[in-house]
Specification:
The protein has 35 helices and 6 strands. By secondary structure, the protein is mainly alpha-helical. The longest helix has 95 residues. It is elongated.
Length: 1137
């Protein structure tokens, strides 16, 4: 089109020139063709084109700046993710661990309180019976004032002695209640910090903050996915496929055969959630890429399969999923503090590395077996291997326990046997918090692994040794000419030792038994080994039954010892319904307490090293996946799901503890303890009083008879002693009168004295007996009066005691009613359906309110805390997993993301600057040509005539000048020849075509920019400072330690200072860039094309201008030469031609 336009112009100019007369030509040569024209059209086109190119450059530079801003934003959002990970670990994980320890301490103290409570009741009953027995005589001292009418015993007086017994028992009760109150307040001190923290969590995990956290995590996912898509578009696929496949080949080889089968691919699809590798697709892929048709893919064949378009990005998905789980396990290992937690984390690590790295299995197995770690920890790992064998979330189908035990046995068989023996010990099993009924099957399973390890290691090594022994046998010819075999010399008949056993000279094999020693077994004794797991299971079952029986028997003996008296049993019946506090002991509580064994320092040191190693490996795999796919995570990775898992676990825990963690719940707990301290003693003594009165009333008839008998016996004894005491004096007094009377009768003084001497003792004894009989009744009456006089002095004291008992009873009734009302109010305020607690509140006014309420509360806590602690432990595991995942992804994202955007921005800016620099001289040259063609800068001139007398250059500088002059002459005088000019025009047309194609590319890039801007509409917090500030504020309310750059940053400054407002940063730049690049790139194309057409027109004008200038120059030269010839002719006398 341009050529046609130029030809038309040239023809018109040619026709106009040829029809003009010579005078006109001279006029034009001297006028229009020689004057300098201003090419207004060319100037406008050139300036417009240059301006459009400049604006396109500005738009692309704005796009480059926006990319740099996106890079800054990726760094800011990476800091947000790592800040969230840091807060999860530093704050939430540590608080969970602290609360868990406090709850376990409280659970342990609850057991102590229950023990003390039972002992107080038992001691009170025992003391009551003891004092009733000891004060029986005091009860029998009350005598009747009127023995003739009512007998000797006054029963009313005996009843007044009961307070004396109650006072003695009350001292025991007072001491017991004091100890019990002290234990209850210590329990509150242990539980309240945990309950207060749980109360704060109730607010933090409330619906409002929960919805904000879910929105934030969803926004974080969307932001990351947007950045991932942009980076994938900008950076493309990496060149590290060989390195990736080398690391991931073991993950594809699920069956550990060294090759990959269709079944392996199908299991990979199931394990790593790759839909393209499920169904019949794996078999089709194997058939397609199996070059030797053996049904197995080698490394090279698998490499080709990975590039299949039907399974895009399967390699980074597999490796990234493995790295994600590895980082989560590393987080769990780092967060573990207890032996059971750490053992479970080690087993999870085994489940991962067994799928990909046998070297790591050997390293951990060596650490477990070389005695650098406690034997109890190794046994706990064995137990966890058994308990988690059927875990469906394992990324391998291999027998994890068998691999670990075999590896460990080969390196350290003695320690392996010891660990198994320790695990088979029922006491160890129970004291480490494992369920007793699970021990038999675990012992069987681990024994099976050990036996298999013995068989594998022994047969593999010992078979080779047997071959060596056979090779040493020499063949000789016997006396009968038969070929015989002869064993080596005696000096060579030595046993061959091996960790799996020993080969003896006679060819028998000794394999290490479970006891750690050796047994001589023949090669056919494999059946014995095969029967060992079942035998070990039966022994373990018997041991578990014995342990449980001993445990029950021990508790029964202890209970019988505490409640050994009938009174203590009746007190228990009245106070708690006959159930001791320890009767309702939850077995889960004991397991929870035993499971909380702190790990030893050497174990924690090993855990830190293992966590660091696993984290480094996970980060390396994440980095490799990032380089390969230019994405920080897979499409299925979702941080919102992980955060929601944490929130759900915490909500489950909080729902369990809500009854006690609210202010009303803690107040209820305080009131329960206070009410018990205030009314427990009164309640107990009230029951004791009834029991003592019952005992006294039961014994009154018998005691009355015994009292009469004892008083009568006492009076008889006293009177008899009085009679005995007066017998001798009466005998001496009566002897003289009797001798005189007898001497008078027999008229013989000596005979009279003899008779008196014989009769006086008998008369004295008779008179003494009669005197004692007469005194007995009087003495019995006198003793009763003396007892009554002594008891009368106790009347005032006894009356005071009765008044106090009555006052205590009235206070107890009113306060119990008030307690019941308060509990009902608290329950209605919280809207909690707590039937058990309402039942307790209804029974508060009963006879056994305070005691029953306390026992119920303790039982509820004893049942609740183990389950709550386990739930909190699971929630803590999710927290450590989420923390590790966030840190692993965003740590790599912070390094790689900004680098990709910055590099892309720099290359993009450099590309467009170079393009502008390329177009600028062309446009300026085009403008210069247009001006030159119009007569400026000397205009078109004819080439200089060649002169024969040109002096050649002499010096070096002259030669250089001549060279440059020659080149410049060519450029200056021959640049507008048809060949040169139209070649330039064709090149420029190609340039314009390239500009047009670049305009189309810029339109496509504008679509990408529009896509980026459309992503902003999906995430409000990327463009709205208020929404961003509110969301980050909610996150800080949830995690008080959260910060992005530093801990002292202000909340309002977090979003702008850390470039979190991505859309706000890039929106104006992207919009202006889209407008400038698309509009002015097409406009620059049109203007550049039109400028070429104008240059062609001016080229024709310049060509004819040069012709005219040449003609004018020739005419001038002809005239000049003619005038010069005329004077010479005149001088010579010739006429001019």
């Amino acid at each position: 089109f341009a050529a046609k336009q130029v030809e038309a112009i040239a023809s018109r100019v040619s026709r106009s020139i040829h029809i003009q007369p010579s005078s006109s030509i001279e006029t034009m040569a001297g006028g229009e063709l020689r004057r300098k024209d201003i090419p207004a059209c060319a100037l406008c086109l050139a300036i417009g084109s240059l301006l459009c190119h400049t604006l396109v450059l500005v738009g692309n530079l704005q796009a480059s700046s926006a990319m740099e801003d996106i890079g800054k934003s990726t760094a800011g959002w990476s800091k947000v993710g790592m800040g969230m990970s840091r807060s999860f670990h530093v704050e939430l994980d540590n608080l969970m661990n602290q609360v868990s320890r406090q709850l376990l301490d409280g659970l342990e103290h609850i057991s102590k309180v229950q023990t003390v409570l039972d002992k107080v009741v038992g001691a009170t009953g025992e003391s009551a019976e003891e004092h009733v027995e000891n004060h029986t005589q005091a009860m029998l001292l009350q005598l009747s004032n009127s023995s003739e009418q009512r007998g000797l015993v006054d029963e009313a007086a005996l009843q007044r002695v009961v307070p004396l017994i109650l006072q003695a028992v009350d001292k025991v009760v007072e001491k017991g209640i004091e100890v019990l109150n002290d234990a209850l307040h210590k329990l509150l001190l242990k539980l309240k910090p945990a309950l207060k923290q749980i109360g704060e969590w109730l607010v933090k995990f409330g619906p409002k903050i929960q919805s904000a956290i879910e929105a934030f995590s969803s926004s974080l996912d969307k932001v990351q996915k947007i950045f991932d898509k942009i980076m994938e578009k900008l950076n493309g696929k990496g060149d590290n496929e060989d390195m990736m496949l080398k690391e991931a080949f073991g993950l594809y080889d699920v069956s550990h055969t060294g090759t990959v089968t269709a079944l392996d691919l199908k299991q990979v699809g199931e394990l790593y959630s790759i839909g393209a590798l499920q169904g019949e697709k794996p078999m089709d892929l194997v058939i397609k890429y199996d070059q030797d048709s053996d049904g197995q893919l080698t490394y090279a064949e698998l490499k080709e399969l990975i590039g299949d378009e039907s399974i895009p990005n399967s390699l980074p998905v597999v490796l990234r999923t493995y790295a994600k789980k590895l980082s989560q396990v590393a987080g769990n290992v780092a967060a573990a503090r207890m032996r059971d937690e750490l053992a479970g984390s080690i087993v999870n690590y085994f489940q991962l590395v067994c799928a990909n790295n046998q070297t790591k299995v050997q390293w951990i197995s060596d650490a477990l077996g070389n005695a650098s770690l406690p034997l109890d920890f190794t046994s706990a790992v064995f137990a966890q291997l058994c308990l988690t064998e059927d875990d469906p979330n394992v990324l391998t189908t291999a027998d994890i326990g068998g691999i670990v035990i075999t590896t460990m046995y080969y390196m350290h068989h003695n320690q392996t046997i010891k660990a198994l023996e320790n695990m088979a010990n029922t006491s160890y099993w129970v004291l480490n918090g494992f369920p007793p009924l699970d021990q038999p099957r675990c012992v069987k399973r681990v024994t099976k692994w050990v036996v298999e390890a013995q068989t594998k290691n022994s047969s593999k090594y010992l078979t080779g040794m047997l071959e060596q022994q056979k090779n040493k046998v020499t063949s000789v010819v016997g006396p009968d000419g038969v070929l015989e075999q002869q064993l080596p010399d005696a000096t060579e008949k030595l046993p061959i030792n091996h960790p799996g056993g020993t080969i003896h000279p006679d060819g028998s094999v000794s394999i290490a038994a479970l006891s750690g020693g050796e047994q001589i077994l023949s090669m056919v004794d494999v059946d014995v080994l095969a029967a060992m797991p079942a035998r070990a299971e039966s022994l373990a079952m018997a041991n578990v039954r014995k342990h449980l029986h001993r445990q029950q028997l021990s508790y029964a003996v202890e209970r019988a010892k505490v409640f050994s008296t009938k009174t203590s049993q009746e007190l228990l019946l009245h106070l708690t319904g006959g159930k001791a506090a320890k009767d309702k002991k939850n077995p889960n509580a004991e397991r929870a307490l035993h499971a909380g064994q702190p790990a030893k320092p050497e174990t924690l040191k090993f855990a830190r090293y293992l966590s660091s190693n696993a984290t480094a490996t996970a980060n390396r795999f994440q980095d490799m996946s990032f380089i390969y796919s230019s994405q920080s995570s897979s499409a299925l990775d979702n941080f919102a799901t992980q955060v929601q898992a944490v929130v759900k676990k915490m909500q489950s825990f909080l729902e369990m503890m809500m009854k006690w963690a609210t202010p009303a719940g803690m107040k209820r707990l305080d009131k329960t303890v206070d009410d018990f301290g205030e009314f427990a003693r009164t309640e107990l003594m009230k029951i004791v009083k009834k029991k003592v009165e019952g005992l006294v009333n039961k014994q009154l008839p018998k005691l009355s008879q015994n009292m009469d008998k004892k008083l009568h016996q006492a009076a008889d004894v006293i009177s008899h002693k009085i009679g005995k005491a007066i017998e001798k004096p009466l005998e001496r007094v009566m002897q003289r009168p009797l001798s005189e009377v007898a001497g008078d009768i027999v008229n013989n003084t000596k005979k009279g004295e003899k008779i008196a001497k014989d009769i006086a003792p008998k008369i004295g004894a008779m008179l003494g007996n009669k005197t004692g009989e007469l005194l007995a009744d009087k003495l019995e009456t006198l003793l009763g009066k003396l007892v009554n006089k002594a008891l009368d002095k106790l009347e005032s004291r006894l009356n005071t005691t009765d008044q106090q008992e009555k006052a205590h009873a009235e206070a107890h009734a009113s306060l119990m009613e008030e307690s019941a009302r308060d509990i009902a109010i608290f329950s209605s305020q919280e809207s909690i359906d707590d039937e058990e607690l309402q039942t307790v509140g209804d029974e508060v006014g009963a006879e056994s309110g305070a005691w029953q309420q306390l026992v119920t509360v303790l039982t509820m806590l004893d049942t609740l805390l183990p389950t709550a602690t386990n739930t909190l432990k699971f929630a803590r595991t999710e927290v450590s997993k989420a923390s590790a995942s966030l840190n692993s992804v965003f740590e790599i994202f912070e390094i790689r993301g900004p680098a990709i955007f910055n590099m892309t921005a720099q290359l993009y800016a450099l590309l467009w600057i170079l393009w502008f620099v390329f177009l600028l001289p062309l446009s300026l040259f085009n403008l210069y040509y247009c001006l030159w063609a119009s007569g400026w800068f000397g205009g078109p001139q004819p080439p200089p005539r060649e002169e024969d007398d040109i002096e050649p250059p002499k010096t070096f500088l002259d030669k250089i000048g001549a060279c440059c002059s020659s080149c410049c002459t060519c450029i200056s005088y021959y640049h507008d020849t048809s060949c040169c000019f139209w070649s330039f025009i064709i090149v420029m047309q190609f340039v314009v075509l390239i500009i047009f194609l670049i305009s189309i590319v810029l339109c496509i890039i504008a679509g990408v920019k529009a896509f980026i801007l459309s992503g902003c509409a999906q995430v409000y917090m990327l463009g709205d400072p208020a929404v961003c500030g509110e969301t980050v504020g909610a996150l800080r309310n949830f995690l008080g330690s959260f910060f992005v750059r530093d801990a002292i940053e202000q909340l309002d400054d977090i979003c702008p200072d850390n470039d979190l407002l991505t859309c706000q940063l890039i929106q104006s730049k992207m919009q202006s860039s889209v407008i400038l690049t698309t509009t002015f790139s097409f406009l620059a194309t049109l203007l550049s094309l039109q400028n070429l057409i104008e240059a062609a027109r001016l080229h024709e004008q310049a060509r004819y201008r040069r012709l005219f200038n040449k003609m004018c120059l020739e005419d001038e030269m002809g005239k000049t030469s003619g005038e010069a010839a005329l004077p010479s002719a005149e001088t010579s006398g010739e006429s001019p031609p």
